[in-house]
Write a structure and sequence with these properties.
heterodimer; A: 209 residues; alpha+beta; outer membrane lipoprotein receptor (LolB), chain A; 4 helices; 25% helix; B: 203 residues; 17% helix; globular; Outer membrane lipoprotein carrier protein (chain A); OM_lipoprot_carrier_LolA-like (chain A); signal (chain A); lipoprotein (chain A); LolA/LolB/LppX (chain A)
């Protein structure tokens, strides 16, 4: 019985240690932000796959979709869903170019503040520049080789949608591996990035509508 | 003058007749159910749709999640493809509760219309009042609040729901099937307003 109890305590502490979140101290925070900034300056292109999961409080199952994304500095983004439906959007020169399974649409972002904000949000969370955005109050915690930036939007336009936005950075290469968009209700969307390639060559045709 | 009044009365009488009834023949159907069920929204599992809403020529697309919470209560959320919730309402038997709506959609006419459409789409356990035939289709008339709902069934599948007042069609819901006999598309077309909603099941 005593062995079982000590095993349990050991397991508890191992689990606690592995999940514990520790805030970055001011010096660590400054170094981390500088490194992310330097990394985003170096980032000319990015590509990878994503898995999107939507959790709603009143629905038991998660709603999943996945696809590919492409980014070209400073703010050219293509977001392409492949399953369970074909849908792609390109954020380009102040426009949102939608291809909904062959049905094409063009939206002027200046006339749609919501999509304009979402466009900035997506581009800047992929390249990490969002950390430098003064429209958020941010605090950092580290956990298992990840630095988690918890960002609370200050502006009404975004705070209407999101209670918080969490960016999960890999501390080895400063790539954002996951973005979690938490709504006021507590419902959230999590986007996990996989097979990330830093500065790959991207054909211009990727961003054509 | 008398002739004019007679002609006017004649046109008034026929223009007030419900067009839905014109091609229907009231008849007894031996195996008619006492209550009508919509087999696609019978259980309490959530249904997820890629949806396209066309209102007066403007198109909005997104993901629509519908979950029946009780026999006559459903909850729906409309999100962007990126997952951001734009609208979240609970549809009650005669009204709705707004859980969340972005400013652009937070308009009574939008919420009321959408709630009414989902109430019609998910209605179940309605008493069959009359039965009709239209060629191979069996048609069941039920009532929901102040409206009449005509359910068109063929080969055991629900193919169409038409919602009417006593004199006018308000909404047509068409169910399209794939080769595997699964619903591939649900189309909600309004008669009085230029509003069309297409739902493609994605799970």
């Amino acid at each position: 019985m005593r062995i079982a109890k000590s095993t349990f305590l050991l397991l508890f502490f191992v689990c606690y240690w592995s999940w514990a979140q520790e805030p970055l101290n001011p010096q660590e925070e400054e170094t981390f932000i500088n490194n992310v900034e330097a990394f985003s300056q170096e980032t000319k292109t990015l590509k990878g796959n994503f898995i999107q999961t939507k959790e709603l409080s009143f629905v038991e199952k998660s709603i999943k979709s996945n696809g590919d994304f492409y980014y070209k500095s400073p703010n050219l983004v293509k977001w392409e869903y492949k399953t369970p439906y074909l849908y792609s959007v390109i954020f380009k020169n102040g426009e949102l170019l939608i291809n909904d399974d062959g049905k094409k649409q063009q939206i002027d972002l200046s006339s749609n503040k919501l999509f304009e904000k979402l466009s900035d949000l997506i581009a800047n969370s992929i390249n990490g520049k969002m950390l430098l955005d003064e429209g958020f109050s941010t605090h950092f915690v580290k956990q298992n080789g990840i630095v988690l930036a918890k960002m609370i939007p200050k502006e009404k336009e975004l705070s209407e949608f999101f209670k918080a936005i969490e960016l999960y950075f890999n501390t080895k290469n400063y790539l954002v591996e996951k973005v979690k968009l938490i709504e006021k209700s507590g419902d959230f969307t999590s986007i996990e990035f996989t097979n990330l390639k830093h500065n790959p060559s991207l054909d211009a045709s990727v961003f054509t509508h | 003058m008398r002739q004019f009044l007679l002609i006017s009365a004649f046109f008034l009488f026929f223009s007030c007749g419900l067009s839905t009834l014109k091609n229907l023949e009231e008849t007894q159907i031996k195996d008619a159910p006492q209550q009508i069920e919509n087999p696609y929204f019978q259980n309490l599992e959530a249904s997820v749709f890629k949806s396209s809403i066309n209102v007066y020529g403007k198109e909005v697309s997104g993901i629509l999640i519908i979950k029946k919470q009780e026999k006559d209560i459903s909850r729906l959320a409309f999100t962007t493809e990126f997952g951001n919730t734009l609208l979240d309402i609970t549809v009650m038997p005669t009204g709705y509760i707004k859980n969340f709506a972005i400013a652009q959609l937070d308009k009574k006419i939008i919420l009321k219309t959408l709630a009414a459409d989902i109430r019609t789409l998910t209605a179940s356990g309605l008493k069959v009042e009359k039965t009709f035939r239209q060629a191979e289709k069996k048609v069941y008339l039920t009532k929901l609040n102040d409206y009449q709902l005509f359910y068109y069934c063929e080969n055991g599948n629900l193919k169409e729901i038409i919602k009417t007042t006593k004199t006018k069609e308000k909404l047509k819901i068409l169910f399209e099937f794939g080769e595997d006999e699964q619903v591939k598309l649900i189309n909600l077309a309004h008669s009085g307003i230029k509003l069309n909603i297409q739902l493609t099941p994605i799970e």
